[in-house]
Write a structure and sequence with these properties.
Subcellular location: Cell membrane
Mean pLDDT: 86
Number of strands: 0
InterPro entries: ABC_BtuC-like, ABC_transptr_permease_BtuC
Distance between the termini: 55 Å
Keywords: Cell membrane, Membrane, Transmembrane, Transmembrane helix, Transport
Helix content: over 70%
Order of helices and strands: HHHHHH
Transmembrane segments: 20-39, 84-105, 125-148
Structural class: mainly alpha
Main location: membrane
Length: 152
């Protein structure tokens, strides 16, 4: 017997994985554009795309931003984009933490509620609220610090 069937199977799996990852990346980019265009100041999707694409070095000469208001550019680049990127980073961090929990306990059902991390964080936050412990120190919320300590 030859190994062509196994090789084809491996290649098919890689191709499927590549297609799946490409689809997910396109969905992520689409959600970035849509979430950047929605808000208190509704900006057209064309304006959002023009502002973002004009910042790419190889597309800056092709994209026409003469009709884009400077206020729209400020809203997109200084307010919405940092929040969207932060949301993506936090989502990736939470997903990574979930995978680490599942690998650490060798249990695909392991999550923060089963292990007791979430109730501990809730207890820490409750203690900070009930005892009216300060609102902030060193730029950090004391409530968040107590929740973190409770989770540990």
């Amino acid at each position: 017997m030859d190994n062509t069937g196994q090789e084809l199977g491996l290649t098919t799996k890689r191709t499927q994985l590549l297609k799946y990852m490409t689809f997910l990346m396109l969905a992520l980019l689409l959600s970035l554009f849509i979430s950047a265009s929605l808000g208190a100041a509704d900006l057209p999707l064309s304006t959002t795309a023009a502002v973002f694409l004009s910042r790419l070095p190889f597309l800056s000469r092709v994209v026409d931003t003469t009709r884009v208001e400077s206020a729209a550019e400020v809203i997109l680049l200084q307010i919405r984009l940092p929040r969207i990127v932060l949301a993506m980073v936090v989502g990736a961090a939470l997903a990574t933490a979930g995978v680490i929990f599942q690998a650490l306990f060798r249990n695909p059902m392991a999550d923060s509620w089963i292990i007791g991390v979430s109730p501990g964080a809730a207890l820490g936050a409750t203690i900070a609220i009930v005892f009216k412990i300060g609102h902030g120190m060193i730029g950090l919320s004391v409530l968040s610090l107590f929740a973190f300590m409770g989770a540990m």
